[in-house]
Structure formats: C-alpha cells, structure tokens
Amino acid sequence: MKKKVFFGSVFLLLVIANAVALAAESTYQIGPGDVLEISVWKDESLTRQLVVPPDGIMSFPLIGDLDVKFMTVTDVRKAITKKLSEYVPDA
Fold first, then answer.
1. What's the CA gap between 47 and 38, in Å, rounded?
2. Exposed, middle or buried, 7 (CB in 10 Å: 0-12/13-18/19+)?
3. How far is Cα 40 from Cα 47, in angstroms, rounded to an integer?
4. CA distance 22 to 50
5. Which residue of 10, 29, 71, 77 is surrounded by the most CB atoms within 10 Å?
6. What pLDDT does 91 receive?
7. Do residues 23 and 72 make contact, with C-beta atoms less than 8 angstroms apart?
8. Spatial distance between the Cα atoms of 58 and 42, rounded to a whole number of angstroms
9. What is the helix, strand, coil percentage profile of the chain, to 5?
10. Helix, strand, or coil (residue 40)
11. pLDDT digits over 15-63, tens only?
12. Cα(20)–Cα(78) distance, integer angstroms
C-alpha cells in the first residue's frame, strides 16, 4: 500500500510540475543565456541544444538566423516550425 501511495504522490508532483512549466512557457520571454532544446520530429540530425547569445540571434540548420530575444517558447516553436516546413515534411 505504501508503494502505491508513494508512486501516486510522485506522479501527482510530476503532473503539477508539467502544468506549471506549461503556464510559464506561454509567458516567459527568452533572453541571452537561455538554453533552448530543439528537437525535430522524424529528423534527429536537427536536434540541438543552443545557448541564446547576447544579441538574441540564434543560428539553426536550414533556416539560418532567428532573433529569439523577447519571444516566448511558443513563439519560437511556431517560427522554427514555419521555417522548417519548407525543408522537412510534417515539421
């Protein structure tokens, strides 16, 4: 019984942590020094972990430079998806 209660508590904490992360994702503005983990579905070769430079302009394969300073995570995701859709089917 204790294992079930413990597991249930850990699972609940993970669910709460994910909900908080999603709320922050929609309002947090990216700035210099932030680390972005970018994964492209169906193309592992494009997976990158990038540190946003002081000028806020990051470079990504196929799409070139993208100014991400003051964008939200959602905005960056949409911008990268839009630009990659020209090169990667179903991006």
1. 6
2. exposed
3. 6
4. 20
5. 71
6. 55
7. no
8. 22
9. 45, 20, 35
10. coil
11. 444 444 555 667 889 999 999 888 887 778 888 888 999 999 999 888 8
12. 21
